[in-house]
Amino acid sequence: MRLNQQNILLGVTGGIAAYKTPDLVRKLTAEGANVRVVLTDSAKEFVSPLSLQAVSGNPVSDDLLDPAAEAAMGHIELAKWADKLLIAPATANFIAKLTHGLADDLLSTLCLATEAKIYLAPAMNQQMWKAAATQANMRILEKREISILEPASGEQACGDIGPGRMPEPLELTEALVDDNSSLELKNKHIVITAGPTRESIDPVRYITNHSSGKMGFALAKAAANMGAQVTLVSGPVNLNTPDAVKRIDVESAQQMHDAVMNAVGDCDIFIGCAAVADYRPVQMVTQKIKKNNEELTLTFTKNPDILADVARRQQAPFTVGFAAETQDVSRYAKEKLARKNLDMIAANDVSRSDIGFNSDQNALTLFWSDGEKSLDVADKGKLAVQLMHEISARFIAGKP
Ligand code: PMT
What we know:
Elements (H helix, E strand, L loop, with lengths): L6 E6 L8 H10 L3 E6 L9 H8 L10 H7 L1 H7 L2 E7 L1 H9 L5 H8 L3 E6 L3 H5 L1 H12 L3 E2 L3 E4 L5 E5 L3 H13 L7 E6 L4 E4 L2 E3 L6 H12 L3 E6 L10 E5 L3 H11 L5 E4 L6 E3 L18 E3 L3 H6 L6 E8 L3 H11 L4 E6 L11 E8 L2 E9 H18 L3
Parallel strand pairs: 1-2, 1-3, 3-4, 4-5, 8-11, 8-13, 11-12, 13-16, 16-17
Antiparallel strand pairs: 6-7, 9-10, 14-15, 17-18, 18-19
Helix pairs in contact: 1-2, 1-9, 4-6, 5-8, 10-14
This protein binds ligand PMT.
The site of ligand PMT has 29 residues, from helix 10, helix 12 and strand 16.
């Protein structure tokens, strides 16, 4: 199960090699991937939508303007759903469309609308593959960090001999698996906190904050997709658990502290993304407080600092904190990096309403002892993948 519940969108264009795609879908699902298939009109001449639906277990999409399909999973949702977009086989015509950013059918539109990494398995006549136009297009696509799965050489359907055969389904599957494991988070245990905490005042009231858990859950998904074993300690949120992630639900900061301390024993990386309440009421009264007085005074006491306690452990994991700040963001973040003895901190400007708490997008500035890097505004899913890449790189660099 080396594709670990990854969402793989398979785009099939109209080449003879399309007949191999039901086998490709089988191999991807055997590795644990969730596969959805998009066919171009000409692909349907070579492979039947019904057979791809049967092997993938999901409806096959082929029309940009199909109201029924849009009512189920619309093309933008499909673009967001994908962790990886594999186009196999990719014809010379489709490659030219992709190079020029055309969006005149479902698959080409998805290529523009997705933030997922795109993998291209070209398949065509050897002369078409060698043509200057095709080669120039390939160079442009490579520069855009589209991963090219080079065609194999051999006898072609038309009788020619040369390069242009789509790699076999097993090779394509291995290429996706290899890309996955190249991040070296395979078999690493990562503990992540997410969401808010709730600090009870009385049996019906509590103090909390605006954290939705989206950032922490996106990190858990990204880490799991990179092969890590992930434990997600979450405050009260309304989110589904990412596939292959172990989730522990807590309410208060003290409960989150206890759950994290139980989980970090063997962990390699700890990421504190939760918005943990710094203080809790000194006492939680057992009966509902009555409105007898004009004023109510509550006394608070400090909660344990989960992040600092993880970082000060004898066998401390690579420890990453967040700093949610409304002013002097970088200065306060650097100060927390040093004071809490962290390996890395992600500074989050939460004065903006379009990013940070409870929004779908975020932007971060990362600091570590001798470096920094800004991650521009992006969907939290995409940003989480970028952040996990940075964490993975620093974690590996720091190993003896
Ligand atoms: O959940 P979302 O809606 O997606 O929003 C994401 C987010 C804004 C909550 C997230 O990106 C973020 O910035 N999380 C950190 C929030 C926070 O509490 O920051 P802080 O600067 O107060 O805390 C600094 C660090 O110490 C954080 O890593 C925090 O998890 C940790 N901490 C704080 C207090 C405490 N008692 N224990 C802790 O571990």
